[in-house]
Specification:
- By secondary structure, the protein is an alpha/beta fold.
- The chain folds into three domains: 3-133, Tetratricopeptide repeat domain (Serine Threonine Protein Phosphatase 5, Tetratricopeptide repeat); 163-341, P-loop containing nucleotide triphosphate hydrolases (Rossmann fold, 3-Layer(aba) Sandwich); 347-418, Helicase, Ruva Protein, domain 3 (Orthogonal Bundle), CATH 1.10.8.
- It has 22 helices and five strands.
- A five-stranded parallel β-sheet has the order 2-3-4-1-5, with helices on both faces.
- Strand 2 (237-240), helix 14 (254-267) and strand 3 (271-275) form a beta-alpha-beta unit.
- The radius of gyration is 26 Å and the shape is elongated.
- The model is unreliable at 132-164, 202-207 and 247-251 (pLDDT under 50).
């Protein structure tokens, strides 16, 4: 942080000295600049005004640990544990402080509590002292993993095909052909450019290979469809993050399940982790409304950063229809390394779509052009819906199924479909941060 930016916070605090949120921000910035004395002073100032402030206590735990004041870490962390406000990070520092004080048995107890909530937790220092070295994240075997499950429960867990068979987790290759994906040329080029990470000779054998792409735009414009076609383009597999699929098999919290998926990704260097509707995990922290939701966000941000696994490659693609719901910190360097606005198909792309449909229906090239003109701002999903609705209307009126449609059949249905993109652009303009609007504005300026 620049000194002039810190000066802005100082001046703001002079005007509003009782602003706790502002003082917490100031204390955190001072800590990051390693001005521990002033940071501690401001955290203590917050606690004078609000003795139960959790963020101030969490900040002091990190600060005292950095200063080597492990006794203070233990005292404050114990308070946080008692009120149920000790995050995984706080528990980790608590255990490490106990280790440095040679309280091995107490450190083991805290470590066991971390593992109970998150069986895929990994920390090099704690694991080296308190756990077998043959741990899950080092090996694709589960034999060295401790948990509080009974033996029968563990046996049932690993009988589940979700864990026993990797193919069960990944999207089946070849279901969508790359050549059949119409349009989205910018996104295709972006994926082609980053595909080097999937090549053993050039990519995942090198250090610091990390690709995190964010796709955003109205629903139905092809984000998921294109991702499903990637295995046909490259020798890669798609691992979709679906937390509910392991909800019944494990009782650990959501942040543990997020770590499970990233761990699985590291074990398969040629795989791509796909996080659809990423706003479910990375929503704005002030809106999250619960400590658990904050933990989920923190774990996602940590895994995207990949700080602990700098020698491992990772290729992550996330998609959202509500980019304004994402926490702003996810757009900082180190989280999403690239992003792409996936817009409704352009006029030329709609022409290609209907030209493709000519093989199944009765339309001339002139009619295709006119139909493309009349379906402005339609998403690919709505173009498909147009055809399905026309077939349905014919079947309900005549009682007969019709396999081929004519131009007039489709034109009758066009006025009944209002493109959702129109609503989406209005909401985006009202809610999206300024730094995201450039791509959308560029599209709207040249939209047909």
């Amino acid at each position: 942080m620049k000194k002039k930016d810190l000066k802005v916070l100082e001046d703001a605090l002079k005007l509003t000295p009782n602003n706790i949120a502002l003082r917490l921000t100031y204390a955190l910035k001072l800590f990051k600049l390693r001005d521990f004395e002033q940071s501690e002073t401001n955290y203590q100032e917050v606690l004078k005004k609000d003795p139960s402030n959790i963020k101030a206590k969490q900040g002091l735990v990190e600060l005292y640990f950095a200063k080597g004041n492990y006794s203070a870490v233990i005292v404050i962390a114990e308070e946080l544990v008692k009120v149920g406000a000790a995050s995984e990070k706080m528990m980790e520092l608590y255990a490490k402080a106990l280790l440095r004080q040679n309280n091995i048995s107490e450190a083991q107890e805290i470590y066991d509590r971390i593992i109970k909530n998150n069986p895929f937790y990994f920390d090099e220092e704690l694991d080296a002292v308190l756990e077998d070295e043959d741990e899950y994240l080092h090996d694709d075997e589960y034999d060295g993993m401790d948990s509080d499950f009974e033996d029968e429960e563990m046996d049932n867990m690993f009988d589940n095909p979700f864990f026993a068979d990797d193919d069960y987790m990944f999207i089946e290759n070849g279901t969508v052909k790359w050549r059949d994906v119409i349009g989205m040329d910018q996104l295709k080029r972006l994926i082609d450019y980053n595909s080097v990470i999937l090549t053993p000779e050039l990519g995942y054998k090198h250090r610091n290979n990390k690709v995190n792409l964010l796709l955003f735009g109205p629903p139905g414009c092809g984000k998921t469809h294109l991702v499903s076609a990637i295995p046909d383009r490259f020798d890669a597999s798609i691992l979709p993050m679906e937390l509910d699929r392991i909800n019944d098999a494990f009782t650990f919290k959501a942040e543990g399940r997020i770590q499970f998926y990233f761990a699985k990704l590291r074990l398969h260097p040629s795989a791509i982790l796909f996080i659809d509707d990423v706003e479910k995990y990375g929503s704005k922290r002030e809106k999250s409304g619960s400590f658990e939701a904050l933990q989920v966000y923190s774990k996602l941000a940590e895994e995207l950063d990949g700080i602990r696994y700098k020698d491992s490659a990772q290729f992550v693609i996330a998609a959202t229809n509500q980019p304004w719901e994402l926490d702003p910190s996810l757009f900082t360097p180190g989280k999403f390394t690239g992003r792409c606005f996936v817009a409704p198909p352009t006029l030329s792309e709609r022409v290609k779509y209907f030209e493709h449909m000519k093989a199944y229906h009765t339309m001339t090239s002139v009619e295709v052009s006119e139909l493309a003109m009349e379906t402005r701002m339609f998403s690919y999903a709505e173009l498909s819906c147009l055809i399905d609705t026309a077939l349905f209307h014919i079947a309900t009126k005549s009682g007969k199924k019709k396999s081929k449609l004519g131009f007039q059949d489709l034109m009758k249905v066009v006025p009944t479909i209002r493109p959702f993109a129109l609503t989406w652009f209005e909401e985006f303009d009202q809610k999206a941060p300024e730094h995201m609007k450039y791509e959308v504005d560029q599209y709207l300026q040249r939209a047909d």
